[in-house]
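debug: dumping io for the single-chain case to check the tokenizer round-trip. Nothing else runs in this session.
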Amino acid sequence: MKKDQVIEFMDSLEKSDKKLASFVKMYEALSSFLTDFDFLKDTLGLTQKDIAEKMGTTQSAISRIASLKTNPSYKQLLKMAEAVGGDLFITPMKDMTVQVPYDLQETVRKLATSEKKSTSDYLEGVLRNAIELDVPATCTGHSP
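debug: decoded output
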């Protein structure tokens, strides 16, 4: 099966099964958070026990969150993010939020620093430039 076929199949399952759709909606963001959390945790060489100590909780509490056996509060997720040196960013604009792949993050930080910009400002400029160069005049309402 090709990737597109798998995605189409999963989409059709989600559309036909309301329980599955609800589960996906509920856990998609948490799963993404946990993927990023694990990446940062592993990059820093931290264990769940280290994180728990930083948060003032137990390793088993972290394990329950990591294995999706509990619904963590905003406060717990914020503490987890801070424990690995991250921030917690929540937005209702799901498809308008850009994620930088892990392998490009350090490069983006260096480029932003070299231009004396915040990472966010740097990425906004790159995105604006790319779109302005690529968008046909008919899409923007401008004539050539």
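debug: round-trip ok. The mean pLDDT is 86.
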